[in-house]
Amino acid sequence: MSNTWKPRTQAVHAGTRRSQYAETSEAIYLTQGFVYPNAEAAEARFVKSGADEFIYARYGNPTVAMFEDRIAALEGAEAAFATASGMAAVNGALFSLLKAGDHMVSARALFGSCLYIAETLLPAFGVEVTFVDGTDLEAWQGAIRPNTKVLFLEAMSNPTLEIIDIAGVSKISRAAGATLVVDNVFATPVLQRSLELGADVVVYSATKHIDGQGRCLGGVVLGARDFVRGALETYLKHTGGALSPFNAWVMLKGLETLDLRVRAQAASATYLAEKLAGHPGLARMLFPGHASHPQHDLAMRQMVAGGTVLALDVQGGKAGAFAFLNALNVALISNNLGDSKSLVTHPATTTHQRLSPEARASLGITDGLVRFSVGLEDADDLLSDILSALESLKLR
User: Fold this and answer.
1) Closest Cα partner for 86 from 243, 195, 257, 312?
2) Where are the domains of the chain?
3) Please, are residues 231 and 97 in contact by the beta-carbon 8 Å criterion?
4) What's the topology of domain 7-254?
5) Dihedral of the CA atoms 346, 352, 358, 361 (nearest 10)?
6) What is the pTM of this model?
7) Residues contacting residue 22 through CB under 8 Å, at least 6 positions apart
8) How far is 100 from 103, CA to CA, in rounded Å?
9) What is the pLDDT of residues 221-260, one digit of tens each?
10) Per-residue confidence (pLDDT) for residue 2, from 0 to 100
11) What is the pLDDT of residues 95-112, one digit of tens each?
12) Are 267 and 305 in contact (CB under 8 A)?
């Protein structure tokens, strides 16, 4: 692979391993084990494996390795470890960095399952966690303790789309000798390279934009080689969170078109935000690429575009949001995002339903809030669909 290749070229060619048959499309090595020429070779491989020497699919696999190398090239990371899901990636990154007696500082605005790990699982294993307003650098600084080992945040929060100053938090983290872990799933490596902004570790749910067509679960953790092939790999290979070879092959195919899809989706999201801003049927419209967003200037410094997701706060609370969802014809009701199909969900009753009303309110998740993941449909068709659904609220 050439180091001079642009990201779109890397997305097609990076990490490719061809068999003796010289296949064009990457091969699926659908095997859980590998054969050794003799007992001595087996012994040697368990002591130290070479770059293209494999032991067991839970430890590594040629198809999975291709995906890891390709996403690492796109992200600008030294190494990557692919996981069975996005949450396996978050769990693996945090649990391989923390132990009983350690302290973590986390942004308060997190995806429901990420919040469960930070709020429930880590404390159960003796890790103290302090939650802060992620947009407030003074709050991050004030939460640092002598035993702070990790700072954790979503670059763009789910579902209220808060933007956090990664470079600013990185300075605080490095001064404390801690590791900054960034969930970059909403921004994708196309729109934001968090490692360049100061993150030490980046995690993705590959289920989202990387697959991009709602087919498979997957995740990935990226960072320095010493961490990825050290503590992280040790934790994940012994706890079983590995990505399957078939899913890795699907993700490889997704990476080939990631740049094209994400840029098209972001352009449509920007168009929709411009048209929907100030609509009387919406109490709020949140989109980092629109000037009305509280962290718009920061978003435009950190990102190439404003993302592919809008948060629409529909008038009328839960009843209004449900009526809006049920009136849509193009967008589909589903709790995934980053798909080629536009998907819409009601966080208060789905992804964040386990939170108390007070906790949701503190995160800005109102009963009328709807998360709209923009797909690849014609932007005018999506706009007509949304406007028609909002108009139908007046007829109730």
Assistant:
1) 243
2) 7-254, 258-395
3) yes
4) Aspartate Aminotransferase; domain 2 (3.40.640)
5) -50
6) 0.95
7) none
8) 9
9) 999 999 999 999 999 999 999 999 999 999 999 999 999 9
10) 62
11) 999 999 999 999 999 988
12) yes
Count of residues making up the chain: 396
Q: Which two tokens stand for residue 346?
A: 């009601």
State pLDDT tens for residues 360-391. Answer: 888 889 999 999 999 999 999 999 999 999 99
Place 4 in a pLDDT band, splitting at 50, 70 and 90.
Answer: confident
d(CA 255, CA 7): 10
The encoded tokens of residue 195 equal: 């490692």
Kind and range of the H or E element at 323?
A: helix 317-327
Residue 200's alpha-carbon distances to 71, 100, 152, 167, 260, in angstroms, are 16, 21, 10, 11, 27
Q: One-letter amino acid identity for 103?
A: H
* Nearest alpha-carbon partner for 33 in 57, 65, 49: 57
What is the fold of 258-395? Aspartate Aminotransferase, domain 1 (3.90.1150)
Place of tokens 């699907």: 250
